[in-house]
């Protein structure tokens, strides 16, 4: 299993002062040097953390893969075609949310998603859909022609250690099995941390985990290199 690191949180801290520190590009390089196989940036409509210039620079300077998370909007489609990242991960976006709260409703907008991803695929960009672990969304995702889904692990992460853990974990397991049956490759992420990540190994053939908040939080105390190394060892 591979580890992708979401470095948006570094940009959030930088933007708090409006200066240049901490630098998301330097963070990306440290992540790569310590085991990350991809760097995720979520270019939000309101640009509250990562900004256009960050994405442009990171896409040129990193040596692993850039995974551009974005909403299904005309503006973001155009930016993706210009930046040409290795992959895009399509997410729902609400202005007021603190983080991506739920998965993309693929089943409810199947034609829109198909039309949106067609030019991206034609440009050679790998497309992933961030969805909740539910059968309806998995089957709809398979119909879009996307190569990957990313299963939203938020509910599992929140339920970890509680009576609901097993139910939420089984939803992920079941969704992943169905997805692979339909030929989709499966990533997962959201809310994963140093305690709860170990159960991802019980889900066969997960390709990559995308993790941000817990790694950047730990980095404050132990340094980004150690925080990434430690998560890399757990994921590996
Ligand atoms: N995957 C997706 C699609 C996300 O939106 C996020 C959060 O930005 C993550 C993974 C990483 O989540 P976390 O920061 O909780 O590790």
N- to C-terminal distance: 6 Å
Order of helices and strands: EHHEHEHEHEHEHHEEHH
Which architecture would the CATH scheme give at its second level? Alpha-Beta Barrel
Bound molecules: pyridoxine-5'-phosphate
What is the CATH first-level class name?
Alpha Beta
Secondary-structure-based class equals alpha/beta
pLDDT below 50 for ≥5 consecutive residues: which ranges?
none
Biggest sheet, strands in spatial order? 1-2-3-4-5-6-7-8
Number of domains: 1
- Main sheet? 8 strands, parallel, barrel
Please state the overall shape, judged from the principal axes of the Cα atoms.
globular
Count of DSSP strands: 8
**Whole-number radius of gyration?**
17 Å
Strand content: 15-25%
The total count of helices amounts to 10
Average pLDDT number: 96
In CATH, the topology is named TIM Barrel
Percent of residues in helices comes to 40-55%
At the fourth level of CATH, the homologous superfamily is: Aldolase class I
Task: Draw up the topology in text.
Elements: E1 2-6, H1 8-17, H2 24-33, E2 38-42, H3 52-61, E3 65-70, H4 74-83, E4 87-90, H5 110-122, E5 126-131, H6 135-144, E6 148-152, H7 154-159, H8 165-181, E7 185-189, E8 208-211, H9 213-222, H10 224-235
Parallel strand pairs: 1-2, 1-8, 2-3, 3-4, 4-5, 5-6, 6-7, 7-8
């Amino acid at each position: 299993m591979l580890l992708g690191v979401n470095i948006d949180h570094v940009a959030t801290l930088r933007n708090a002062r409006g200066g240049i520190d901490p630098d998301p590009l330097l963070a990306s390089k440290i992540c790569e040097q310590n085991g990350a196989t991809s760097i995720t940036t979520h270019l939000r409509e309101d640009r509250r953390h990562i900004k256009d210039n960050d994405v442009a620079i990171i896409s040129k300077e990193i040596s692993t893969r850039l995974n551009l998370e974005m909403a299904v909007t005309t503006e973001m489609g155009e930016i993706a075609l210009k930046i040409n990242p290795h992959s895009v991960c399509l997410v729902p976006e609400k202005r007021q949310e603190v983080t991506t709260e739920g998965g993309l409703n693929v089943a409810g907008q199947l034609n829109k998603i198909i039309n949106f991803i067609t030019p991206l695929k034609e440009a050679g960009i790998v497309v992933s859909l961030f969805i909740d672990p539910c059968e309806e969304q998995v089957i709809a995702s398979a119909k879009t022609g996307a190569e990957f889904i990313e299963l939203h692990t938020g509910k599992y992460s929140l339920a970890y250690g509680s009576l609901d853990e097993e139910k939420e974990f089984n939803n992920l397991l079941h969704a992943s099995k169905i997805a692979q049956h339909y030929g989709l490759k499966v990533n997962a992420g959201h809310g994963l941390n140093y305690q709860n990540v170990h159960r991802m190994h019980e889900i066969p053939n997960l390709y990559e985990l995308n993790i941000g908040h817990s790694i950047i939080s730990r980095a404050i105390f132990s340094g980004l290199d150690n925080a990434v190394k430690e998560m890399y060892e757990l994921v590996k």
